[in-house]
Design goal:
heterodimer; A: 386 residues; alpha/beta; Peroxisomal Thiolase, Chain A, domain 1; 2 domains; nine-stranded mixed beta sheet; two-stranded antiparallel ribbon; 37% helix; B: 130 residues; mainly beta; OB fold (Dihydrolipoamide Acetyltransferase, E2P); four-stranded antiparallel beta sheet; 44% strand
């Protein structure tokens, strides 16, 4: 693989926008990324689009990439959709990285888009593709992570108030991010006192239903020089793992651990080198588990990272500086690229009030879906200031 | 169970995944004669060693790995749903409703008849004193 750089990023604000369309969201993100990179539509040679629920909700299981590119004035090039649960956007980013890194293309576009506010079962937890039999017995994604949370509390003695600190921290971070869905600070009491969803996870311990899109332009060094691009961020590595189906302790996700190890090895860095990270905090417990599986701290010691402030802005390794899924929002297919948007912003030193001083290396992590009783897909990307 | 009532596995699996055995439920899984891995539901190819599986009836006995209460259960379930993660004594992990409130993690449980979505015939786990 040759070197690949992120040359441009763009995203819509995340929120609930039932009156817009996936086409308009996607177009807005693509145009913003092109403008940020300083290139034109005709410079884009290939595109991958991540989306997970556009089939069920918008009668568009296929063709979302072509639709959004057409809407933004991009035609004729190879375009493919990528469905990979909550990791759809990360996987689209990875496909684009492979397309440019392989040498087949010099300029690629990764886009992620989702509009969940139109789902008819609003107020109910999202269901999960492929868990039909389990679903007939009551399975939902919050149920899985509530099981993980109780197991975690049983093993460590940590109580729900500690888990809730993740939601308070990420909301505090989101208050500094103009793209975030929820920006008003919340208290520990509000998180713990919000309606119970799946014990011990309350509503404010769960990510919201979101709409939005994000896009990134990836280029080779040759393209960067030819097009005179600047503010480049280098993609050091990209990894993707699927479940091992071994019935491990439910409070950890082995595929995340494997994806992280692969990404660190390819990037030739370790978790101690990471300055800023966006992780898949779909529920408060997730962020704590992810600290451990990604190697940010020893196993079963993740709670201390949030209690000590280590994972807050100003701490040892700020995590979810965008506000994370919990407060920036989680439009499934857009999330992985929005994570890259945040990390690129940080590595360029353009994050304003939420800037992590001197950030040189950043990591993004998305995990999604279920197969039997294991998670299905985990993607990790490591980026570095160029 | 009446043959006319809906089952949770109707149309979802090639073969039934459970059958009643008096007051208990047996889970219909499979095992790998080569490496000994046990699966539920039944499968054809071993995900551990890639050998062929053969059908095996599982006792429905296991240990509770974790549990939760779904205050906001999915469509087709009424009220609060107690839900658990069970590791069967034969090995496989099963996610299913649990009968008891506040069960202890690690407690012995047994699969018994229970209702799935819209009251379909299914199974749940019940704490056993042992």
């Amino acid at each position: 693989m040759r070197e690949v750089f992120v040359a441009g990023i763009g995203m819509t604000p995340f929120g609930r926008f039932p009156d817009t369309t996936i086409e308009a969201l996607g177009r807005q993100a693509i145009l913003a990324a092109l403008e940020d990179a300083g290139i034109g539509q005709n410079d884009v040679e290939v595109a991958y689009a991540g989306h997970a629920r556009t089939g069920r909700l918008h009668k568009r299981e296929n063709g979302v990439g072509q639709l959004c590119c057409w809407s933004a004035g991009i035609r004729e090039i190879p375009i493919a959709g990528v469905g990979n649960f909550c990791a759809s956007g990360s996987t689209a980013l990875r496909e684009t990285w492979m397309a440019v890194g392989s040498g087949l293309y010099d300029v690629g576009l990764a886009i992620g888009v989702e509009q969940l506010s139109k789902r008819p079962e609003g107020g109910q937890p999202l269901t999960s593709d492929g868990m039909e039999l389990e679903g007939e017995l009551g399975f939902t994604p919050p149920a899985f992570f509530a099981l993980a949370a109780r197991r975690y509390m049983h093993t460590t003695g940590v109580d729900p108030a500690v888990l809730a600190q993740v939601a308070v921290k990420n909301r505090r971070h989101a208050s500094l991010n103009p793209y975030a869905q929820y920006r008003s600070p919340i208290t520990l009491g509000e998180v713990l006192g919000s309606p119970m969803v799946a014990d011990p996870l309350t509503r404010l311990s769960c990510c919201p239903t979101s709409d939005g899109a994000a896009a990134a332009i990836l280029v080779s060094r040759e393209a960067a020089e030819r097009l005179e691009l600047d503010r480049l961020v280098r993609v050091l590595s990209s990894s993707l793992a699927s479940g091992g189906y071994r019935g491990d302790d439910i409070a950890h996700l082995d595929l995340d651990h494997r994806a992280a190890l692969a990404a660190y090895e390819m990037a030739d860095v370790g978790p101690e080198d990471v300055d800023v990270a966006e992780v898949h905090d779909a529920f408060t417990i997730c962020e704590i588990i992810h600290y451990e599986d990604l190697g940010f701290c020893p196993m079963w010691e993740g709670a201390a990272m949030v209690q000590s402030g280590d994972s807050s802005l100003g701490g040892r390794l700020p995590v979810s500086t965008s506000g994370g899924l919990l407060s920036r929002g989680h439009p499934l297919g857009a999330t992985g690229i929005a994570q890259a948007h945040e990390v690129v912003t940080q590595l360029r030193g353009e994050a304003g009030e939420r800037q992590v001083e001197g950030a040189r290396i950043g990591l993004t992590h998305c995990v999604g879906g279920f197969v039997t009783s294991d998670a299905a897909a985990s993607a990790v990307h490591i980026l570095a200031a160029a | 169970m009446s043959s006319e009532s809906k089952r949770i596995d109707d149309g979802l699996e090639a073969a039934p995944v459970f059958e009643a055995a008096g007051p208990e439920v047996r889970l219909l899984g499979s095992e790998c004669p080569r490496c000994g891995a046990v699966a539920f539901p039944r499968r054809e190819v071993c995900v551990r060693c890639a050998g062929p599986h053969r059908p095996r009836e599982l006792s429905g006995a296991g240990r509770l790995h974790s549990w939760t209460r779904l205050a906001n259960p999915p469509h087709g379930f009424d009220g609060e749903l107690r839900y658990g993660c069970v590791d069967l004594v034969e090995g496989p992990r099963v996610l299913a409703p649990v009968a008891d409130a506040e069960p202890a993690i690690g407690v012995a449980v047994q699969a018994v008849p229970g209702a799935g979505r819209h009251g379909a015939d299914g199974f749940r786990f019940e704490v056993r004193d042992a």
